[in-house]
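Quick one:
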Amino acid sequence: MDINDMLARVRQLPDELTTVSDPLTRARLVGDVLTTFAETERALKEVRRPAVVALREQGMTMREIGEELGVSASRVDQISRGISG
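Output:
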């Protein structure tokens, strides 16, 4: 399974979770997913930050990086400095 397949599966989670008939089980599963997402988000930010720093070191401007990533130049600056947002 490649990363795009994994992303597609993640996007299907809300619909799949609505099929769990027991509300307590459904609520627990959603809680587990949210906890996992929070942990994963932190880890992913630690992967993204050095990538953005490397792009800056290669000579790309913050504006260029932002355009490629679909974020503002100021957000690129925040990412490169490890500021959450």
